[in-house]
Amino acid sequence: MSGKLYGVGVGPGAPDLITLRAWRLITGAQVIAYPAPDSGQSFARSIVAGCLRKDQIEIPIVVPMRVERFPAAQVYDEASENIVAHLDAGRDVIVLCEGDPFFYGSFMYVYERLSDKYDCEVVPGVSSIMTGAAVSGIPLAARNDVLTILPGPLPDDELTERINATDALVIMKVGRHLKRIRDLLNELNLLDKAIYLERVSLGEQRTMPLADMTDESAPYFSMITIYKGAEPWIDTAKMNVTNHD
Amino acid sequence: MSGKLYGVGVGPGAPDLITLRAWRLITGAQVIAYPAPDSGQSFARSIVAGCLRKDQIEIPIVVPMRVERFPAAQVYDEASENIVAHLDAGRDVIVLCEGDPFFYGSFMYVYERLSDKYDCEVVPGVSSIMTGAAVSGIPLAARNDVLTILPGPLPDDELTERINATDALVIMKVGRHLKRIRDLLNELNLLDKAIYLERVSLGEQRTMPLADMTDESAPYFSMITIYKGAEPWIDTAKMNVTNHD
């Protein structure tokens, strides 16, 4: 009998923001796969490093970190073959995913290759967007607000139209688009409502009004949030600022 | 010294989809508050019932369950006074919130009243939207998709415009708007891509193509998702259907 494939969201970064279900699956796993950069540590693995045992088989899925470029299909083809060997041998395989597996998550590239042939379960995780709201003290959305999630690489005209049309928004994958997006929000008179967030929930987290974030670019795991709502208690200027740089 | 106020997301419903942080805070708490209906059990409390002890002080925040009506400010004024008495006595107070506190969460009504005067921490939770994607096997968003979160009570013309303009969407708070929204999606030729989800992650969860959900109305904790993406592996017709009715 084949093993089962699990896509497990491990949350935004803090080890105690994984779920009890993720913890149970990871501590009990025989085989654990995770995305890893070509140099340096796997972020997903680092979140759960405290749960791992030496007798577990680890499968790093080494994804070249070229910015904004979809990683070669070959990487996921090879990783999937590796995972399949374990599934066929009757071993369950846990694939770790930063945040949530089905919210812009890398697990989808494994899922699309294997979910037709193997029993598969997705374990949702705490997303960086909810964590960003929690650490900044400013909600994502309330009551009948419309919330729009926008990838930062979208062109200016599309961003402009969608930003103007919504009550609240999160711009994901800010990265090298930081300066362009900041300039755009300034033109749209929204800079004073925009929050910059980086590596939320981690020790090196940075949160600040976007106007104060003057770098040209940002890490991949960064985002910008805007809540346009008229709630009187929401005051961007009073937000908690953390900056460990 | 005053106690600290915590807004703790307890996730979509399954007791093991709370975070380790939530578990630690709840099991260690002296005082726990939660929204409760005027008759029947508190959903938020039921999620963590297995963690509670008899010596903990519980504060039900009884919110009359009139559909779509914002509960009287008086309920939260009184609950906040009750919470303040404990904070002033130096006791921390945990306020439970279904899903995530800052994603359409009821905790905001306590937060807006007390966050200026007391030390406050928000603990993010697993959201029903990520859980809905996990249980249906269909992603929320990938790559450069735009994802729009829409409250079901919005009028038809606004829903139409926003549904047409996005790559992926979740309609929250479907409730008594079910039939209207289903008719609208049918007119927009999107019914075959729409998923209906109810009480995700719980034993009584229901997930099915919206076309198969012929009821006139739905519970408050229900949603509709549409992923328009052209990923060949996404096939609404093949989705797992659970229906415990």
From TrEMBL, chains A, B:
Which pathway does this chain act in?
Cofactor biosynthesis; adenosylcobalamin biosynthesis
Q: Which PROSITE patterns does the protein's record reference?
A: SUMT_2
MF-aspect GO terms: precorrin-2 C20-methyltransferase activity
Classification via SUPFAM superfamilies: Tetrapyrrole methylase
Keyword Methyltransferase belongs to the record: yes
Query: Could you tell me the Gene Ontology terms of the biological process aspect for this record?
Result: cobalamin biosynthetic process; methylation
Q: Which InterPro entries does this entry report, sorted A to Z?
A: 4pyrrol_Mease, 4pyrrol_Methylase_sf, 4pyrrole_Mease_sub1, 4pyrrole_Mease_sub2, CobI/CbiL, CobI/CbiL/CobIJ_dom, Uropor_MeTrfase_CS
Cite the entry's keywords alphabetically: Cobalamin biosynthesis, Methyltransferase, S-adenosyl-L-methionine, Transferase
Question: Which residues belong to any copy of the Tetrapyrrole methylase domain?
Answer: 4-208
Please indicate if the UniProt record lists Transmembrane helix as a keyword.
Answer: no
Q: Which CDD domains match?
A: Precorrin_2_C20_MT
The record, for PANTHER family, names: COBALT-PRECORRIN-2 C(20)-METHYLTRANSFERASE
Q: Which NCBIfam families is this protein grouped with? A: cobI_cbiL
Member of which family?
A: Belongs to the precorrin methyltransferase family.
* Protein name stated in the entry: Precorrin-2 C20-methyltransferase
**Organism expressing this protein natively:** Ahrensia marina
